[in-house]
């Protein structure tokens, strides 16, 4: 390498040197050791004698000094002027003139994060820490772990990394994301048992997630460790927090504002005038649409405006991203998933969304509407008309055309803001980037040539690793692809030119990887990218190319347990066009389907094991691509992978997302061979969908299509055709038929050694006995269910076992039942199993309503009301309303109890107060339910606010 190109040294993992073109070869072990020794010295002179000793040990050969000079010369040739190795008696030093060191960047970002946290900007702190920790690729100076020269520096960096991990956990807790912090904190405590700081934060995090007992246990475990190892008590902060937890200090239970807005990975630059004007527009009307070409910054502006307007909405701000939907498809399922709600029985998903939003005050951000414009406009229009306290902020390349819409074209960034954005992104690539006068002129030329479009500016700024601003400006000036003139069309041409220019600067293997990634609807982890885009390469090679694409802002990386990579929608559209030109789209799509079918099947199996949480998170992360895989397979009439996918996802989708995938199963029943081994599983999935919609006749007719055939072993728990028939019987009052089915199925599962199936069937045996008012007869089944469930270590199974035993004990031993219900709810919540979480919460609240503190019970029943509204189960909501009536009776709230009783009877539901008294609404059960929920919420609020009534 020669010239002044930028060089980057990486020591947070195996030693690696890169320039703008990729890795730089620096030779074998001895040159690498020499380079590492100079890097560890941080620019200080290292004597030749010390270098010889490091390279050859205590007995160097006679020619060692000459060989040392040869190695220095070789390194100088590889590194060039960017990182000169200078001779300074008595040895050598390495200067990072035009080079950067990942360890230095890591330390700087940690310092920035700590300053941000000290000022209360925990979101900025978290973003900096995520970036800093993302620089690590393994152990510091990993290949030199046994070398004396590296030991102290490696230990120092490792300690800093551990501190940064603790900082990150603190930031998560401060931002109200304690549940995310708990696993990281538990790992820190295991790795550093005598370090008080993560133990204290773990106490806070556990308490914030409703786990008071576990929070106190963390303190006791810390005290035991300190006493055993050091003979001391925990310090004052731990002691003080312990006392606050004991007395339920309200300040510890601060809840984050509702919503799902993502945190910003970088600061928002400029657009102060646009932000204020859009905020004013949102206050003036219920619908604002930000329009503009791709890459104009519509999405980022919308998120910034939404974040600043958050406090105006009691029910928060919710972002629904539509980019992952296939063109022209309905948007109701995506909006419901973003809001965290599921389709209600008897309602379409769109009606469910409207029902949920009708009584709420929130801001709904609907992003990337252009490819589903008709469906988005229809649903948004209904929301605006029917939900008086909901405001919608949409982004689209063209207006929605809906009544009342205020259209705000997003203008290009003015020169000052565009320059600031360029500098911010350039410093993300090259931390010591400086805007001197010469560079300022070149940057002005760049951002002007790119029409102030943020995406184009970010792509150009990413090139600062390998080019100067003047070189980028010259390249852009010379390209023939840029359109002349002004206006939206010209700006679109400018952006296309910037993308084209960035793409053509990539080496061919990176071009192939970039365009291949356009097949992913929602992004992918490294394993999926490798298997779908370039299976002939090694995974390490794909990772190297991905890293370079991230460095060039062509790919967005998101850190996590498994880092994920995606293309911004504008870049994805460009990549799709290139795959079609190259004739690669068909093969890519087929591999995409195959990989996601395989993942769905592995997740389906995994969610029945001990690692249910990890598999659920992985499956949810790829849900957009599971949808895309099914859509493609169905369009190609490739029924085998479509059937495999549909029968693998019921637990993932039904229990955690919604009912969209049941329509897939219904579609397949019309076209697949009934003799296929998976046909009964597809029947079970479709039948369960009809059951969830409240269509019991349809559920029965569909389930009978299986002809009594059983799904294969390991099938999703909720998708057995026979179980659906039994559940219909149970709901319609034929307890004996349901009991007979589940008793026989339990015997079958026991004989087959199918523990997951055995837990499920024993659970229902206990439920049937409880419904039949003979809970004592269900005790043996419930106990066995719990015992078998614990042997599986599967969280959902363990939750079911605890719920079953609590249900049959709640009258005979309410204290034990309460503990079982609480444990069941926590287990289900930990794996995002919302239905089992809800029934456990409800039975715990109902038991407290009879046997415990009525104020606590009122708060818990109110939380259950909100839960069933989100989950969309009207059957469970009516049962919860009966429990509310019983509590109101207990606290002598006679008028409230009578009003709620009237709603129950009007809807044809049983009531604890007996026959109707002639008052209350009549007609539509859904209207009666809405009225009942509103009455119950208000009444419970009065009970919770009046402890004296207890």
UniProtKB/TrEMBL annotation:
Q: Which domain of life is it from?
A: Bacteria
Single GO term (MF): DNA binding
**SMART domains (UniProt xref):** BTAD (SM01043), Trans_reg_C (SM00862)
Q: Which residues form the OmpR/PhoB-type domain?
A: 1-96
Q: Which GO terms describe its biological process?
A: phosphorelay signal transduction system; regulation of DNA-templated transcription
> DNA-binding among the record's keywords?
yes
From the UniProt annotation, which stretches of this protein bind DNA? 1-96
Coiled-coil stretches: none
Cross-referenced Pfam families? BTAD (PF03704), HTH_77 (PF25872), Trans_reg_C (PF00486)
- Key words of the record: DNA-binding
Q: Which CDD domains does the annotation name?
A: BTAD
Q: Which residues cross the membrane?
A: none
> What PROSITE patterns does this protein's entry cite?
OMPR_PHOB (PS51755)
UniProt family annotation: Belongs to the AfsR/DnrI/RedD regulatory family.
**PANTHER family hit by this protein:** HTH-TYPE TRANSCRIPTIONAL REGULATOR RV0890C-RELATED, REGULATOR-RELATED
- Could you tell me what this protein is called? Predicted ATPase
């Amino acid at each position: 390498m020669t010239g002044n190109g930028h060089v980057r040294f990486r020591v947070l993992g195996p030693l690696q040197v890169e320039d703008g073109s990729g890795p730089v070869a620096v030779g074998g072990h001895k040159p690498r050791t020499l380079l590492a020794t100079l890097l560890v010295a941080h620019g200080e002179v290292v004597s030749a004698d010390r270098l010889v000793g490091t390279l050859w040990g205590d007995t160097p050969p006679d020619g060692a000094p000459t060989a040392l000079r040869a190695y220095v010369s070789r390194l100088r040739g590889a590194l060039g002027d960017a990182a000169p190795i200078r001779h300074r008696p008595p040895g050598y030093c390495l200067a990072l003139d035009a080079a950067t060191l990942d360890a230095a960047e890591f330390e700087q970002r940690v310092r920035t994060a700590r300053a941000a946290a000290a000022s209360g900007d925990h979101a900025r702190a978290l973003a900096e820490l995520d970036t800093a920790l993302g620089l690590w690729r393994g152990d510091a100076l990993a290949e030199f772990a046994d070398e004396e020269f590296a030991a102290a520096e490696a230990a120092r960096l490792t300690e800093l990394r551990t501190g940064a991990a603790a900082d990150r956990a603190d930031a998560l807790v401060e931002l109200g994301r304690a549940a995310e912090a708990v696993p990281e904190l538990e790992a820190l405590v295991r790795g550093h048992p005598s370090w008080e700081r993560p133990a204290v934060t773990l106490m806070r995090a556990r308490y914030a997630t409703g786990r008071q007992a576990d929070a106190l246990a963390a303190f006791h475990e810390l005290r035991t460790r300190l006493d055993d190892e050091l003979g001391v008590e925990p310090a004052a902060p731990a002691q003080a927090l312990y006392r606050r937890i004991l007395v339920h200090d309200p300040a510890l239970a601060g809840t984050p504002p509702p919503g799902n807005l993502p945190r910003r990975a970088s600061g928002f630059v400029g657009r102060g005038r646009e932000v204020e004007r859009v905020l004013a527009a949102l206050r003036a009307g219920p619908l604002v649409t930000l329009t503009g070409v791709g890459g104009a910054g519509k999405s980022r502006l919308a998120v910034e405006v939404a974040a600043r307007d958050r406090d105006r909405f009691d029910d928060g701000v919710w972002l629904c991203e539509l980019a992952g939907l296939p063109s022209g498809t309905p948007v109701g399922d995506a909006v419901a998933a973003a809001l965290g709600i599921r389709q209600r029985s008897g309602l379409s998903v769109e009606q469910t969304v409207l029902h949920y939003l009708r009584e709420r005050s929130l801001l709904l951000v609907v992003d990337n509407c252009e490819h589903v414009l008709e469906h988005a406009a229809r649903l948004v229009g209904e929301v605006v008309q029917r939900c008086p306290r909901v405001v919608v902020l949409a982004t689209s390349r063209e207006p929605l055309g809906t009544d009342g819409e205020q259209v705000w074209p997003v203008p290009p960034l003015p020169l000052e803001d565009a320059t600031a954005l360029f500098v911010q992104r350039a410093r993300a690539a090259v931390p010591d980037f400086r805007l001197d006068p010469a560079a300022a002129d070149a940057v002005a030329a760049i951002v002007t040539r790119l029409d102030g479009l943020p995406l184009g500016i970010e792509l150009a700024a990413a090139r600062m690793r390998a080019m100067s601003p003047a070189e980028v400006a010259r390249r852009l000036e010379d390209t023939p692809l840029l359109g002349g003139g002004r206006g939206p069309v010209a700006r679109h041409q400018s952006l296309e030119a910037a993308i084209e220019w960035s793409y053509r600067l990539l080496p061919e293997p990176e071009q192939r990887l970039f365009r291949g990634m356009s097949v992913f609807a929602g992004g992918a982890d490294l394993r999926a990218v490798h298997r779908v885009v370039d299976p002939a390469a090694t995974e390490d090679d794909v990772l190297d190319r991905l890293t370079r694409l991230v460095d060039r802002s062509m790919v967005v990386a998101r850190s996590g347990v498994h880092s994920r990579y995606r293309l911004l929608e504008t870049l994805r559209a460009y990549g799709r066009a290139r795959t079609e030109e190259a004739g690669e789209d068909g093969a890519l799509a087929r591999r995409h389907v195959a990989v996601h079918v395989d993942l769905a099947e592995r997740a389906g199996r995994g969610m029945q094991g001990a690692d249910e949480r990890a598999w659920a998170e992985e499956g949810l992360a790829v849900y957009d691509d599971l949808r895309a895989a099914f859509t493609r397979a169905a369009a190609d009439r490739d029924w085998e992978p479509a059937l495999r996918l549909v029968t693998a996802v019921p637990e993932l989708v039904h229990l955690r997302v919604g009912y969209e995938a049941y329509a897939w199963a219904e579609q397949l029943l019309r076209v697949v061979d009934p003799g296929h081994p998976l046909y009964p599983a597809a029947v079970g999935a479709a039948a369960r969908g009809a059951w969830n919609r409240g269509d019991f006749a349809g559920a029965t007719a569909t389930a009978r299509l299986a002809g009594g055939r059983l799904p294969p072993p390991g099938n999703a728990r909720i998708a057995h055709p026979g179980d659906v028939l039994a559940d219909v019987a149970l709901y319609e009052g034929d307890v004996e038929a349901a009991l007979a089915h589940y008793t026989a199925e339990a015997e079958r599962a026991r004989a087959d050694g199918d523990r997951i199936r055995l837990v499920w069937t024993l659970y229902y045996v206990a439920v049937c006995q409880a419904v039949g008012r003979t809970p004592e007869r269900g005790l043996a089944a419930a106990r066995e269910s719990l015992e078998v469930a614990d042997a599986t270590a599967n969280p959902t199974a363990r939750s079911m076992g605890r719920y079953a035993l609590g249900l049959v004990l709640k009258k005979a031993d309410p204290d034990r039942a309460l503990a079982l219900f609480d444990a069941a709810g926590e287990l289900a919540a930990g794996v995002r199993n919302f239905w089992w979480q809800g029934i456990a919460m409800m039975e715990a609240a109902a038991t407290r309503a009879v046997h415990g503190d009525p104020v606590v019970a009122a708060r818990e029943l109110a939380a259950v009301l909100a839960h069933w509204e989100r989950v969309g189960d009207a059957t469970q909501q009516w049962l919860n309303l009966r429990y509310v009536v019983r509590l109101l009776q207990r606290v002598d709230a006679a008028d409230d109890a009578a009003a709620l009783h009237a709603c129950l009877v009007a809807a044809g539901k049983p009531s604890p107060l007996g026959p109707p008294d002639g008052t209350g609404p009549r007609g539509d059960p859904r209207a009666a339910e809405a009225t009942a929920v509103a009455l119950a919420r208000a009444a419970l609020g009065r009970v919770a606010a009046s402890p004296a009534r207890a």
